[in-house]
Write a structure and sequence with these properties.
This protein is α+β, with helices and mostly antiparallel strands. The chain is 28% helix and 31% strand. It is built from three helices and five strands, in the order E-H-E-E-H-E-E-H.
Length: 116
């Protein structure tokens, strides 16, 4: 599973070409991709903050309707089953400063297949 988040106006950048490139690259890597503009205020964030959310899954399109409306939902609750099945821990850890983080197989796969 791939989760991307950015400013709302990404959808307008370069006449929409930037968003289309992202969607095409993810699709080319075998992901079924869906996206939507969400406002953090609808999910318990105390400010209006519209963001583009892009979710790619190998199995099926993500259904944003399951997030509900005006309800605080943790993303892990909405995509938790997908994460457990698709983001397999490689058994290795990396570090950034004093923070230790797990290497995820799916992320490593995307990075190795993507040319920036």
């Amino acid at each position: 599973m791939v989760f991307l988040e950015n400013v709302k106006h990404l959808m307008y950048h370069d006449g929409g070409k930037t968003l289309n490139t992202i969607l095409e690259k993810l699709s080319g890597l075998g992901y079924k991709v869906s996206w939507r503009i969400l406002n953090g205020a609808d999910y318990g964030v105390p400010q209006n903050r519209e963001r583009i959310i892009i979710i790619g899954s190998r199995d099926k399109l993500f259904d944003f309707k399951q997030l509900g409306n005006s309800v605080c939902v943790k993303m892990i609750e909405a995509i938790g089953k997908e994460i457990k099945r698709q983001l397999l821990f490689s058994g290795e850890y990396g570090t950034k400063g004093n923070i230790k983080y797990p290497h995820l197989v799916a992320w490593n796969e995307i990075i190795s297949k993507t040319v920036f």
